[in-house]
Amino acid sequence: MTTTQFPIAADTDESAPSVFDRLHEWVVTVDHKQLGIMYILFSLVFLVIGGIEATMIRLQLALPDNHVVSAQAFNTLFTMHGTTMVFLVGMPILAGFANYLIPLQIGTRDLAFPRLNAFAFWITCFGGLLLYSSFLTAPALFGGAPAPDVGWFGYAPLTEPTYSRGNATDYWIIGLIITGFGSIAGAVNIATTILTMRTKGMTLGRMPLFTWITLVVQSMILVAVSPLTASLILLLLDRSLGAHFFDTQAGGSAVLWQHFFWVFGHPEVYVLILPGFGFLSEIIPVFSRKVIFGYPVMVAATVAIGFISLGVWAHHMFSVGMSPAANTFFAVSTGLVAVPTGIKLFNWIGTMWGGRIQLKTPMLFAIAVLVQFLIAGITGVMLSVAPFDWQLTDTYFVVAHFHFVLVGSLLFAIFAAVYYWYPKATGRMLSERLGKWHFWLFLIGFNLTFIPQHFAGMLGMPRRVYTFLPERGLEIWNLVSSLGVAFQVAGVACFAWNLIRSYRRGVVAANDPWDAWTLEWATSSPPPAYNFAQLPVVRSARPLWDLKHPEDPDWHYE
Amino acid sequence: MTLQAADTISSIFAPVSTPAAKEADLAKMVLVLSAAVFVVVAGLIAYSVVRFRGRAGEQGTEPPQVYGSAQVEAAWTAVPVIIVIVLVLATGRVIHEIQAAPQPPNAVEVTVVGRQWWWEIRYPKLGVVTANELHIPVSDSGVRQPTFLTLESADVAHSFWVPRLAGKTDLIPNKTNRMWVEPHEAGTFLGQCAEYCGTQHAHMLLRVVAEPPEQFARWVEQQRQMADTAPADSGAAAGRRTFLKTACISCHTVAGTVATGRYGPDLTHLMSRATIGAGVAPNTRDRLRAWVRNPDDLKHGALMPAMQLDDEQLDQLVNYLLTLR
Fold first, then answer.
1. CB spacing of B76 vs A346 below 8 angstroms
2. Which candidate from A347, A367, A462 shows the least CB-CB separation from B194?
3. pLDDT tens digits, residue range A451-493?
């Protein structure tokens, strides 16, 4: 292995700035790396808040006829948990990773519109704070709920003023409209950057897979979040100005809202999970010491998922009384999603096959994703079988299914990504020992919590119930599910401690600690403000492989 | 009337009715296929991790780089495609069998109206109105007699779900949905609202009593009687006066009286039902009194207000309600 590398500028020595100056810098920065880190820290704070809400939900449901929280408080908890995890954790943390990594991976100095980037972060942040300020202000009015309790899906007409008094629902609407503007601004920015600012030699076919997936995801955000924003504005008109779009008492349509919401909501699921696939497509090759198997097929599968995901929304609505033809159409389109996602899974296995797998913490999380996503995919296919779905929809089976997607796959992939890129962002390695504690505790806790929920659902337990009756065979599944939370909390505590401790006392990271192949590893850890002293020129999808193996570079084979 | 014993297990894999049985059969086929896929793919993952785990002596050398293979990609594209085609064909057939089933002329017709947080149940052809407990005939294998439900909502979206009888169909305002059930054995089957509908979604419970046709006919006959007779007992008579003079009558109906409200459950044959508050408590004197005194105590957020009756009025009113058999 040669030590050839792209030129890295030495850090210019500066006198240490005061605390005020440093805070001021974080507030006014337009640097993609700082904004990326702010997005991620913001999301981690809300991950803890959403996690506390989930813990209270599981405390209440640990036993039948339990009274930890009231019915209304429980409804607020699951509404805020869902809204928080989707809009204030999932979306911004992935925006953060894209922000941080995309300019580094494509060999440029920043996003296309740095000031728009700062705007997108701050408006997302303020949208989240506005949503939560509902807890401080709303309860005084008309005996309404203190915070939104209409579900994260806000089905009409429960959101209309007749059924949702007070202003909590208005906080929910306006909070989501504002974070939605942030998502759209970010999507425009990141997609433009990928399309126009790649370094010399980086054709579309040589982009790292994470960059490819991000391009697809940001395009999907434009298509999916805009209808949500429009629908929320219609709902706001209903509530504030007496419009009747979804007001069934005045002839409005409840089903229309469901269509509008899921036209956003289903692509949204892929907006969240695809970046997780992106992380895996970077991490699995590096820790298997092999090039990704079937790069062009992986790209094609990503684009196929993006397209198919726009035509499956009504599989959330098999029980609303659509015609047999419509139900069949959406069963078919949903089943089709299994094909490209299956291809992805097989290509990851193909990458590991014949490799030299190193079981470092990022790879442990990635392997767990493979198995847990397999389960999520299989239960997803079950739900696509509409007559089976008539029994399963709106039960705990669905809760288990999508937590296998969003926690078992996405959150595990995010943990893998944090362990993988933390050295790049901070210049320190995370502790492997704490990382393994984190991994095993969270793996056990996650599966204890969510495997039993499949069975509770098949035994007839609906979702969104604040309590359940004894003697229906549901006690054991709910109790085990709640016990799993303790392990998850312990795992997250290890993670938090690892993040904090390693920042000061972790092993100093080299520029390329994992012996990886994409451009972010070609600059210093952490990278300078301008990323690269001299913009790199690439000839393949693995420029650092080419440098390290000049005798056998990738561009011989691509 | 005592609380009817109900089989409390509501597993979707213990169907007693035609649509639920078709769904369970399809589900079992899907589960078998799924298990096979899981075993194969999880096995491949486990094998790769164990077999290709890096060993200490190999540091610094890289394994052969394999960029892909068109044949292999084609193979693992084709297999999922075939599985999906099989599933889709089976799915389409069952969708059609259930949704497009014709209604036989002797089918029982019931209209179910979802309300926050109880079920209004009407038999338009039989002239029967009740709440929260749906009585239907068992369908004989000789002469089929399914029950066809018309589903509506008076307020927000709800979903009708009795797992052992059929999958869910939503009750949506401004929309009329249809579904059918056809139980083959007698019993009381439990269900509940499956679409989030507000504060007491968890206590919008449903009981379906499937009974032999003769017994069902007797139940219909009994429900069509006038239950309200001027009570002999003076306390009950006073309770009746209280009932008819307060706002009770704005929301409740007792056939044959001035009470014709429809916002709350029909009370004409209140005592023929096993539970009150949409299943939140057994229909006993004690619980009934607690409910009338303050519904919020039993079901927090219930839309029925406490009527601020004193103890004597409460006793009299409950005595009257107990006569509504």
1. yes
2. A462
3. 999 999 999 999 999 999 988 899 999 999 999 999 999 999 9
Backbone angles phi, psi at B9, to 5 degrees: -80, 130
Rounded Cα distance between A183 and A171, Å, is 18
Q: Which residues of A touch B98 (CB under 8 A)?
A: 387
Query: Quick one: average pLDDT of A155-184?
Result: 94
Q: Is A300 on the interface with B (CB under 8 A)?
A: no
Q: What pLDDT digit, counting tens, does each position of A390-425 carry?
A: 999 999 999 999 999 999 999 999 999 999 999 999
**Nearest residue in B to A317, CA atom:** B170
Q: What share of chain B is helix, strand, coil (3-state, %, to 5)?
A: 40, 20, 40
In our burial notation (b when 16+ CB lie closer than 10 A, e otherwise), range A475-503 reads bebbbbbbebbebbbbbbebbeebbeebe
Of the candidates B54, B159, B163, the beta carbon closest to that of A358 is on: B54
Cβ within 8 Å, pair B168-A391? yes
pLDDT at A402: 97
Mean pLDDT of chain A: 94
Q: Which domains does chain B have, with CATH numbers?
A: 1-52+102-222 (2.60.40.420), 234-321 (2.60.40.420)
Range of the domain at A74: 34-556
In whole angstroms, what is the distance from residue A391 CA to residue B165 CA? 10
**Residue B62 contacts A, CB cutoff 8 Å:** yes
Of A158, A388, A468, nearest to B23 by CB-CB distance is: A388
Tell me what ipTM this predicted complex has: 0.95
Q: What is the CATH number of the domain that holds A71?
A: 1.20.210.10
**Inter-chain residue contact B27 with A391, CB threshold 8 Å:** yes
